[in-house]
Amino acid sequence: MMRPSGRNLSDMRPISIETGIMRHAEGSCLISCGDTRVLCSASIEEKAPPFLKGSGQGWVTAEYGMLPRATNTRNRREAAAGKQSGRTQEIQRLIGRALRAGVDRRALGERQIVVDCDVIQADGGTRCAAITGGWVALRLAMNKLLKAGIVTADPIMDHVAAVSCGIYAGQPILDLDYAEDSEAGTDGNFIMTGAGRLIEVQMSAEGATFSRPEMNQLLDLAEAGIAELVRAQNEAVACAG
């Protein structure tokens, strides 16, 4: 079977992570997964949310948005509508949950890091790109805290990355672009640590149910994809110095 992009079933899209995109943010990067591009920044706030006051623990949260012409047709700005869509709220909560899974919140101390993920071009997998790029921005922000001696132990416990897998034309495939995502019988997002431990799995039968063996095949693809994303994260952080 030939994928619309010409990729093999187990091929990722080209990955690029450029750091230092935003001069004012403590950590930032532009992640490109094929034609999907997400701008990620991490901002350090020297106080934790009120519900953590006196706990000795910090917090990592996220916000997610999409520029009006990130897609084929213009989407109205959510600010103009006066509220966030349910999709936006669900995705930014997912990003926050995922990134917190890789952080020792006690080592972070009573401060908050906000990770902003803004999609500037969408071609499938925006939430996965946001998580993967968001981790890089978070890592860079943590490096600044460590360098300044504000924290003494590294709050980052492991990498966090995410990739989509699905069943397209009856075949399990890795890293779906929009053409595949819109036609997939089964669609899933896999969020994992660098050590290969699962953080969250989102799977649904969009057009056809799937079997346990098929799910196992998708998990195998996801593990390989996550390993490739972790390598890209390491290279980006190393280049940032």
From TrEMBL:
Occurrences of domain Exoribonuclease phosphorolytic (ranges): 11-141, 160-224
InterPro entries with a match to the protein in the record: ExoRNase_PH_dom1 (IPR001247), ExoRNase_PH_dom2 (IPR015847), ExoRNase_PH_dom2_sf (IPR036345), PNPase/RNase_PH_dom_sf (IPR027408), Ribosomal_Su5_D2-typ_SF (IPR020568), RNase_PH (IPR050080), RNase_PH_bac-type (IPR002381), RNase_PH_CS (IPR018336)
Any GO BP: tRNA processing
Pfam family membership, one: RNase_PH
Catalytic activity reported: tRNA(n+1) + phosphate = tRNA(n) + a ribonucleoside 5'-diphosphate
CDD domains (alphabetical): RNase_PH_bact (cd11362)
Database matches in PROSITE patterns: RIBONUCLEASE_PH
EC number(s) reported in the record: 2.7.7.56
Binding-site residues, phosphate: R87, G125, T126, R127
Statement: the UniProt record of this protein carries the keyword Ribonucleoprotein: no
GO molecular function: 3'-5'-RNA exonuclease activity; tRNA binding; tRNA nucleotidyltransferase activity
Group of enzyme by EC: transferase
Keyword rRNA processing assigned: yes
Source taxon at top rank: Bacteria
Keyword terms, alphabetized: Nucleotidyltransferase, RNA-binding, rRNA processing, Transferase, tRNA processing, tRNA-binding
Record-stated family: Belongs to the RNase PH family.
Assembly description: Homohexameric ring arranged as a trimer of dimers.
General function of this protein: Phosphorolytic 3'-5' exoribonuclease that plays an important role in tRNA 3'-end maturation. Removes nucleotide residues following the 3'-CCA terminus of tRNAs; can also add nucleotides to the ends of RNA molecules by using nucleoside diphosphates as substrates, but this may not be physiologically important. Probably plays a role in initiation of 16S rRNA degradation (leading to ribosome degradation) during starvation.
Protein name: Ribonuclease PH
Organism, scientific name: Paracoccus denitrificans (strain Pd 1222)
